[in-house]
Amino acid sequence: MYHKRIEYVEKYFSKVALEDSLLDFYDGKIILVTGGAGAIGSNLIIALSKLVGEHGRVIVLDNLSAVKTEDPWNITPRPNIMFVKGDVRCDIDLRRVFNEGPEIIFHLAAFFANQNSVDYPLVSADVDIFGIIKLLELAKLTKVKRFVYASSGCAIYGSYPELPLKEDFISMHLTTPYQINKMTGEMYCNYYNHMYESKTVNCRFFNSYGPGEAPGQYRNVIPNFIYWAMKGIQLPITGTGEETRDFTFVLDLVQGLVKSGYYEKAVGQNFNLGAGSEIKIIELAKLINEVTGNNAGIIFKYRRKWDTKPRLLACIKKAEELIGYKPCVDFEDGIMENIEWFKDNWERIEQSADFPPGLNSAVRDTNENDAPHQELGTT
């Protein structure tokens, strides 16, 4: 199963055609990726493994919270990838990975995501805020050459922005601890860049999807929809279905990260990494049901109290200008690749899927006027 995934990543980057100077820059580098077993990180480390070559190393620090098992099955085994099971809050774990001498850090580890942070706000702050401060301090002390932070455009723009979302819009109308923490992480990167001239970059992700993300109570909509559809279960939509999101294929985000680690124009900047297009949730659900042959249909449920954004659409012009970012995976093609990954890893995904029984606190406060509660027939 790993061979197929490596092949797909390499095929993607052959189409992107990275500059020779970028390839030379990464060759032989030692790179730390926190959260490398997660959805984006597990794809990033494959790309970096190829870039750093046999004389470089990719160090992965992850507590495996994304896969919910002790087996790091989502990490592709390669000779130049080193996995350390650990936590960004733990000084011993951090000392272990910094002893390897990383020159570039991609900080993707997080207490993911909105509803999880609502349920566990103290843990969320501990991981996302204290974790990044510890990393930035160590990066400063060890003179790390670049610190790339995985922020979230879905989180930090607040509830009432104009579309498409541009980087100069700032709002304090944040509705979850996760959103607050992502904003705080950017502020600390900006602070270290200003005070200590640390070469920080803030990449604002939009609705990642693709191979690498296991389904679960606190995970994104696409892996959950694929999982339920493959099990013949109705797909629940929290809202009207007319809501839109800027779904971005995971390797397009990896492209943005790799370029952010190289281009000097990115230092001290924040910019969106998205697809630059909108997809309605109901169209997403219909597509997944159709492709998987799921005849169970769709069911509408109450909107979650914190979910106040009816539409999301990223302006990606700044990333295009600074780092030459260009998303190149068509949405339907990306969904098909995502489903293929589910099929190839179905046994492990079933073991990792985390849907505990009982009432989800996301529906604790419902309002009959928020959304209809009705069933839809076969799509």
Kindly report the CATH topology: Rossmann fold
What is the tally of helical segments?
14
What's the CATH architecture name? 3-Layer(aba) Sandwich
- Biggest sheet: strands, sense, closure? 7 strands, parallel
Task: Determine the fraction of residues in helical runs and give it as a percent range.
Answer: 40-55%
Top-tier CATH class: Alpha Beta
Structural class: alpha/beta
Output the helix-strand order. Answer: HHEHEEHEHHEHHEEHEEEHEEHEHHHE
Count of the domains: 1
Q: How many angstroms separate the termini?
A: 32 Å
State mean pLDDT (0 to 100 scale): 93
Ranges with pLDDT <50 over ≥5 residues? 366-379
Question: What's the number of extended β-strand segments?
Answer: 14
Descriptive overview:
This protein has helices at about 1-15, 20-25, 40-50, 90-100, 115-120, 120-140, 155, 175-195, 220-230, 250-260, 280-290, 315-325, 330-345, 345-350; strands at about 30-35, 55-60, 80-85, 105, 145-150, 200-205, 210, 235-240, 245, 250, 270-275, 280, 300, 375. Helix 3 (about 40-50) links the parallel strand 1 and strand 2. The chain is built from 14 helices and 14 strands. The protein is globular, with a radius of gyration of 20 Å. The strands form 4 sheets. Strands 3-2-1-4-5-6-11 form a 7-stranded parallel β-sheet, sandwiched between helices. The protein has a 3-stranded mixed β-sheet with strand order 8-13-14. The protein starts with a helix and ends with a strand.
